[in-house]
Amino acid sequence: MRQSNLYVILFSVILTVVLGGLLAATSQGLAPFQKKSVELDTKKQILGAVMTLDDDADILAVYDEVIESEVVDYQGNVITKDEEGEPLIAENVSIEKQYKLDPKDRLYPVFKFMGENGGETVESYILPVYGSGLWDSIWGFVALDTEGKQIKGAVFSHAGETPGLGARITEPEVQARYKGKELYNEQGELVSVEMLKGENNPESKLDAHHVDGMSGATITGDGVDAMLKKYFSYYQPYFEKQGPTATL
Amino acid sequence: MSTETVEKEVKKESEALLSKRRRGLINDPLSDDNPITIQVLGICSALAVTTQMKPTLVMSIAVIFVVVFANLSISLMRKLIPGRVRIIVQLAVIATLVTLVNEVLKAFAFDMYKELSVFVGLIITNCIVMGRLEAYAMGNKPYDSILDGLGNGLGYAWIILAVAFFRELFGSGAIFGYKVFEAIGFSSEGWVGFDYQANGIMVTPVGAFFILGLIIWVQRTKTGYVEH
Questions:
Q1: Could you tell me what percent of chain B has a pLDDT over 70?
Q2: Which GO terms fall under biological process for this protein (chain A) (predicted)?
């Protein structure tokens, strides 16, 4: 009886339904908590690009104080309403979903850092970036100076890079290498910042457009290069519209 | 008449909640029959997650949870599971429990989720869990299976925690992120006068191999266990 095909099929069906139901219920029940966790983590990453946070800092309160955000389109125009006329909130724009659209149709959130005490003037612009690593997606937030020409800080994250190799893009030590690097060459062309192959490259190679590489993670590094260059070019029109200084 | 006497013979005295045999279920995997050092199972995660104490502790709790509840569920169903699909049934139960752990981590410990997600998923393929289901839970009562799962989970946990202790101590100079060497004076301001130089090899999986090897050496010298 226990070996009959009918029994095996029935048993499998019941087991699948029970286990599947259990998972669906858990997923539904935990969804609000997970959404909160993701929001907190995103805001932590955005802030991480410009300041160091204490472990016990109230991320959400700090975020509200120091960050102002807006959404721009491919031409660099600020847009406030989506297609249905609902107000657009930069924090709610999913970079991952936008990434699947044509670059011309995407929404580009901009997070403006108003200084550690939340002043009136913008201290730096924090831009989200998104791309592909070796195994899966990589993303991050890059803080630029007010002219959009120099990197003031960067944080990266990943979905499935190899621990100890490509996953090292999450390490502060690797991210710090981007600080102070320039996006444009002397001719004013966008050359972005590239990661060198191999680690502990001589000082002479580490000019304004190159950072030291991660040994054993060349493809993840290439992914970071491509991601940065693409997104810097997407945000170029926005900075050009920011005022005469930016177009110099 | 005859059936009655047979029944009486089969019916044993009820066993103490923690009888000697049952204590053995928990104690044996801690040392004499340890899943990592004796059976050499679950090595991959023992090497991967043990660079720091905190993720290792979370991983230990996750494995204990999964192996205990997988053992319990399979033991409860052991008379119903068709022999031909038993491995798939075991896998389905383990996969469900692992997904639950992952979802809970995502909701309440997002940092740990980001760090451990890959490895928590790999508990599914952790031979310790499958091994206990196939070797024990399929043929034993629920309560005993829980104890067996707990024993093996703890046996796994204390080894990876021990490995993580030495790896974080020498690799990062810290325990649970607390800078131990700095606290006892290994810094430019302290009495030693220079910083503790982190040992890079301890951060790599190679370091875990060394420590694991040392633990196995010490343990086998003590227990006299020889591989045949």
A1: 92
A2: sodium ion transport
In a domain, A164, yes or no: yes
In a domain, B181, yes or no: no
**Of A15, A23, A38, Cβ closest to residue B89:** A15
Q: Domain tally for chain B?
A: 1
Contact A23 B100 (CB under 8 A): yes
- Here the ipTM equals 0.75
Distance (Å, whole) CA A123 – CA A133: 30
Which residue does chain A place closest to B101, by CA atoms?
A: A26
Determine the distance from the C-alpha atom of residue B78 to the mean position of all C-alpha atoms in its chain, rounded to a whole number: 23
Choose among B80, B103, B108: nearest Cβ to A11.
B80
For the stretch A100-117, pLDDT in tens is 999 888 889 999 998 877
Q: Do A126 and A70 form a contact (C-beta atoms < 8 A)?
A: no
Question: What pTM was estimated for this model as a whole?
Answer: 0.77
pLDDT in tens, B41-77: 878 777 878 888 888 999 999 999 999 999 999 999 9
Domain that holds residue B54: 17-161
Separation in Å, CA of A8 to nearest CA in chain B: 6
Count of domains observed in chain A: 1
Helices (H), chain A: 5-48, 59-66, 95-99, 172-175, 218-240, 244-247
